[in-house]
Amino acid sequence: MRFFFKTDYNQDINLFRDSVDRFWYGLLLLALLGAPFVLEDFWLGEISYVLILSIVGIGLMLLTGYTGQVSLGHAAFLGIGAYTHAVLLGLGVPFVVSVFAATVLSALIGAIIGFPALRLTGIYLAIATLAFAFIIEQILIRWESVTGGFKGFPVERPEIFGYSITDDRFFYYLCFGALVLAVLAALNLLRSPTGRAFIAIRDSEIAAQSMGVNLAAYKTLAFAVSAGFTGFGGTLFAHKIGYLAPDAFNILLSIQLLLMVVVGGLGSIHGAIFGAIFVGSLPQLIAILRDYLPEQVARQPGLEPGLFGIILVFFILFEPLGIYGRWLKIKLYFSLFPLYKKATFKRQKTYTKSERFR
User: Rounded CA gap, 316 and 122, in Å?
Assistant: First the structure.
């Protein structure tokens, strides 16, 4: 059993808890850096997709997991980032400038959407963001002179530092570097006064307001930051799929993104990454599962969305803390074994946040 004692107030805001955490995260970093030398191109492509989903998941986690604002419209921000980046590349804008512009535009639109939604909470906020997703989808369809309408258009394939973005190994390192940057940015934001204000709003808006937190300003900022992270992930997502069309950013994708943070574990950066691994690998597992299912079941077109919905319901009912919450329980179990108490690992009653105060 390993005990951790805090002897300094700065330990509460350190990126790593102790030297043991630094060792394991360093080992994970080395493993990910060496992955392209031992894995085939197919698996590199799948891992790159998971890395992109992790960036998007971090953005949604900052809004939903840390600020308590539910969104069903993040596929729209992903589409805004992807289309803006692709259009600017087509106009000859350099890659780095295009990524920055797409991220900023996504953040600005997020702030614009977040401001009128300040008085909405819970299911009403989810409906408002869902309506925004439908509006963006229609804009992508109707604005044919820019987006190409239903036909869409291919994404430019620029060279960066002499390397083509179509090279699987280079694209993997690009996505990995972007994820590291996103994680560091999110962690530094969360340990700042702004991040603590987000968490205070999530826990109790009335208590946060009584302590001097400006609810309107911080909720709008949370939408802007979340949309910026999502738009940043959208720039890489555009190169991953290679061809942009409006049906790539539909309501099903928004539900998958929300499923990602709920299943991964709300209120944790680890949860966003665990959820991305789950959502990114589930389609491949379903494809393998089809070979063992009866033919009538395997041919059903709604098999994947149905499984997503069933899994979400089961996690909400039986593991509301998500995959990361279960991982923490497993670590605690082995650290206390054999002196653990069964009640420690027994599922406790959990209640949703009350909305009776207006």
Answer: 16
The backbone torsions φ and ψ at residue 160, rounded to the nearest 5 degrees and listed phi first, read -125, 120
Cis peptide before 320 (omega within 30 of 0): no
Is the domain 39-345 a CATH 1.10.3470 member? yes
Q: How many other C-beta atoms are found inside a 10 Å radius of the C-beta of residue 158?
A: 16
Amino acid, res. 253? L
What residues does 163 pair with on adjacent strands? Answer: 160
Structure tokens at 75: 């596929």
∠ CA 196-197-200, nearest 5°, is: 90
Task: Tell me how far apart the alpha carbons of residues 86 and 8 are, in angstroms, rounded to a whole number.
Answer: 48
C-alpha 48/C-alpha 35 separation (Å) is 11
Query: From the first residue on, what is the mean pLDDT of each consecutive set of 10 residues in the chain (358 residues)?
Result: 65 73 85 86 88 93 88 88 90 89 92 80 81 87 84 83 80 92 92 90 86 87 92 91 86 85 87 89 78 71 73 78 83 73 59 45
Whether the upstream peptide bond of residue 338 has omega within 30° of 0, thus cis, is yes
Kind and range of the H or E run holding 163: strand 163-164
Angle at 66 between CA 64 and CA 71, to 5 degrees: 10
Enumerate residues 6+ apart whose C-beta is below 8 A from 314. none
- Return the structure tokens found at 336: 């206390």
CA dist., res. 155 & res. 140, Å (int): 15
Give residue 353's pLDDT.
52
Report the share of the chain in percent with pLDDT over 70.
89
